[in-house]
Amino acid sequence: MNVRIAPSALLLLLLLAGMLLTCGCTGDGGEDEPVILNVVAAGSILGPLEEVEAAFEADHPGVDVRVEGHGSIQCIRQVTDLHRDFDVVIVADETLIPDMMYRPDEETGEPYADSYTPFARNAVVIAYTPQSMYHEEITPENWYEILARPDVRVGFSNPMLDAAGYRTLMVLLLAEEYYDEEGLFAGIAGDHCTPPLNVTRTGDVRSVILPEILRPDGTKLVIRDGSIYLLSHLDAGGIDYAFEYRSVAEEHGLSYIPLPQEIDLSTPAYADNYVTAEVVLGFQRFSSVGSTRTGVPVVYGVVIPAGATNTALAEDFVETVTMMFAGGGYGWPAAY
Predict the structure, then answer these.
(1) Of 41, 72, 206, 331, which alpha carbon lies 20 to 30 A from 300's?
(2) Does residue 22 lie within any of the structural domains?
(3) pLDDT for the residue 335
(4) What is the DSSP string of 205-236?
(5) pTM: predicted TM-score of the whole model, two decimal places
(6) pLDDT at residue 24 above 70?
(7) pLDDT number for residue 4
(8) Same domain, yes or no, for 179 and 111?
(9) Helix, strand, coil proportions of the chain in percent (round to 5)?
(10) CATH at residue 250
(11) What is the mean pLDDT of residues 220-232?
């Protein structure tokens, strides 16, 4: 028996078939195209975030977490200056969030954020390898003498872009006072920048004002955009010592010199000492958004920007982050 189908009916059947084939490909979390959760994070936390990402995706089928790493200041600027669509921002310095994100968006008039969650602490250490100059001599007592030697190359991240960079300068300022070694800051960092970095004192506070463009000499001192970008130089022998977070040194199996808690920015009990060191960022655009960075204990913060595309998922992700770091997750101390 032959069945004839009218052309109009055939066209309708073809349209229905096309709709069935394309359903689930509309970007709304269907089977063929997952919902994207965009996260921008400080480079020092990218390692643990791989586990957070895996756990979150396992609990949220159909969601793809995409993480991008930068220095902490650059993380925030992705949202505030470049207006990129990120659902979650994670930085290594919680104080950057109110300073840089509680201001209004020029387009909407609303703040980029009005709250955040602190979730972990860290410490500044000096990382090195078996091929580092004088690695057999360096100790927690003489590290500043070793780093000041003319044939030793030292690296830290750009303080204009990354919290680890301005924290390195703070550590050196604090160390000069702690060890009562005048010239310690200049010998390791200050004299090896163009122009040289000068230290001023107001009462108990010692300050460094950075120029608009910070240029290291390239012989003694190496500066990279983020602290994790120093690791390849350290491994290759391009530098002998790098100022890093303790978690980064341990994650990458590096030897490191632990610093006294009075200067390593790790311990709330020494907060009154940390505030005696400050770094003033030289970029003009920072003049209204917290250009002065004051020494405080290292605390990481996570924030959901206003206008995030996937707010509900972002809230779940923040909860996963805080839960996985709670109680010393990954060996990191909790925030408070």
Answers:
(1) 206
(2) no
(3) 75
(4) EEEEEPPSS-EE-SSSEEEESSGGGGHHHHHH
(5) 0.88
(6) no
(7) 47
(8) no
(9) 35, 20, 40
(10) 3.40.190.10
(11) 92
